[in-house]
Design goal:
The protein is of the alpha/beta class. It has 15 helices and ten strands. The strands form three sheets. Strands 2-9-10-6-5-4 form a six-stranded mixed β-sheet, sandwiched between helices. Strands 1-3 form a two-stranded antiparallel sheet. Strand 9, helix 9 and strand 10 form a beta-alpha-beta unit.
Length: about 425
Amino acid sequence: MALSISLRSNLIKPLTALAASSSSHRLRRPFSSSSADDATVITIETSLPFIGHKCEPPSRNVETTPKELLGFFRDMALMRRMEIASDSLYKAKLIRGFCHLYDGQEAVAVGMEAAITRKDCIITAYRDHCIYLGRGGTLFECFSELMGRRTGCSKGKGGSMHFYKKENGFYGGHGIVGAQIPLGCGLAFAQKYSKDETVTFALYGDGAANQGQLFEALNMAALWDLPAILVCENNHYGMGTAEWKAAKNPAYYKRGDYVPGLKVDGMDALAVKQACRFAKEHALKNGPIILEMDTYRYHGHSMSDPGSTYRTRDEISGVRQERDPIERVRKLILSHELSTESELKSIEKELRGQVDDAIGKAKESPMPDPSELFTNVYVKGYGIEKWEEQIGKKSEGCYHEILKSTKIFPEPYQNK
């Protein structure tokens, strides 16, 4: 038991100790700018250095602008508010089924978007709400999908784990652990075949990092020099299991062996931006690379997990105080006098109103028609149409007959 406690403290210590060492100089980061204009270039040093595996890490000095920093603050604050509201909706039973929240990890979503275009592809696991929002999705579409409404991004049929926006290069939202990684490498194969100079970011958690399909897909990507960037969002717990209990070597950026890797402070949006820009340039020239984002989730694994049985509340509050991605950007904005505290609070109030409005609108949206059960399952002409031919009926009556024969719905619905 003593050994377990010792190992666990060694895991947690770097999280809080590194944060504490960086927090003392956060407001003394070197800046260089000539005015407060939105387009003025500001150079900021990342909180922590990048650590490379088989590659030379990028510079810690990241160029940004007042407009980008304020945009980071707004986008992350909106994501945080959306996830907090989703927590309340789940507890009110307006969201059902599985629900995995992203609060704490927002810097990964916004930093990645800042480095790429919508022609680049992103595919992720089931903690996908904020990634979808970053890809250009709307709050209304998010809450509609979460509540199973037909106006949702997947027509109310996907729920929390299956957000999707192909037109913006977002390919889900996948519930099977690690399954999105080979799919992401497939997207990268298509990109290389098309010669369109774009890349795919395939995101997965530390809990999926030991999956065999990851290494099979990575091997093929390396053989073919595919523009695939594998992003391990290491929040240090796979469900309720700490990384040191699940992985002999939790240095996930090194796990590609022959594939280069980079460890990144995933709570620093500017570090994420710099790393993703570096990774895109690398992948287009040399093939796959692994990014390990050292991040943290404040909620439990899912809404059924209180998140406090396998970690202490002091650990969670310590990360909030020292490494929170929104607070980091807030301090940068204030220290460089790009905005005032009251102005930032006004932005947060405005965002709360936007979230509340979207929830109200989503609640009023209709549920999917029962016929939607049979769409997007078979190739057109080989699904529900065949049933209609056999039963000899059309429209809703046909669907009721099918539902009776397959016993999908209980008796009260069948008798309608």
